[in-house]
Amino acid sequence: MGFPFVEHYRRLAQRLGLAADVLFTGMVPFADAPRHVALGDVAVAPKLSATEGSGKLLTYMASALPVVAFDTPVHREYLGDLGFYAAPADSHALAAALTAALHDPLAARTRGAALRARAVQHYTWPHAAAAIEDVYHRVSSPPAQPPPETTKRPPPLVNLFRRHRHARSPAVPNAWF
User: Fold this and answer.
1) Beta strands 84-86 and 67-70: pairing type?
2) CB atoms within 10 A of CB 68
3) How far apart are the C-alpha atoms of 22 and 161, rounded to whole Å?
């Protein structure tokens, strides 16, 4: 993968002495991407957005890969406590979290399996469809019973005006209500 900058990443891997440890396939058909992703030992998600979704996490989770990510609300929403987290925008912390995941393969595999179970439990199409149908049902159904009236309605202002229009205020002479 690495598309569209495959050659750039190959040169970078060569310069860093990692060329023998990584493979950049270039563009692959979308349907084949999960098979390629599943070949990895650990997935890394360095996205920093606090609000934008991170859909690739679902592919990683479905592939039972442990995930190293910056600690953001979006990543926490998807991964819960199962991610290997690093302080946001701290590349050294991200490298340390990746090292921790790679040096403890049993913990990494355990978290990866738990992430897959989480994906199946919360993020499958049937689950999404049920959540959407629930929202549609709630917004299209009338309330079970109208809410009780909690305060007595004041009389219309017109009636108040008519009732009091000839009264003078004792505090403010010549003031009309």
Assistant:
1) parallel
2) 26
3) 84
Nearest C-alpha neighbor of 22 from the set 41, 50, 46: 41
How far is Cα 77 from Cα 99, in angstroms, rounded to an integer?
A: 23
- pLDDT, tens digit (0-9, with 9 covering 90-100), for 22-56: 888 889 998 898 889 989 999 999 999 888 888 89
CA angle 97, 43, 33 (to 5 degrees): 170
Residues 6+ apart with CB under 8 A from 109: 64, 66
Element spanning 45, H or E: strand 43-45
| Residue 85: its H or E element | strand 84-86
CA dist., res. 106 & res. 91, Å (int): 24
- And the tokens for 138? 């709630």
What the block records as the tokens of 2 is 């690495």
Strand order in the sheet with 43-45: 43-45, 67-70, 84-86
CA distance 56 to 61: 9
Q: How far apart are CA 44 and CA 98, in angstroms?
A: 8
Segment 116-129, tens digit of pLDDT: 999 999 999 999 89
**Residue range 158-175, pLDDT digits in tens:** 544 444 444 454 554 444
In angstroms, the CA 58 to CA 115 distance is: 9
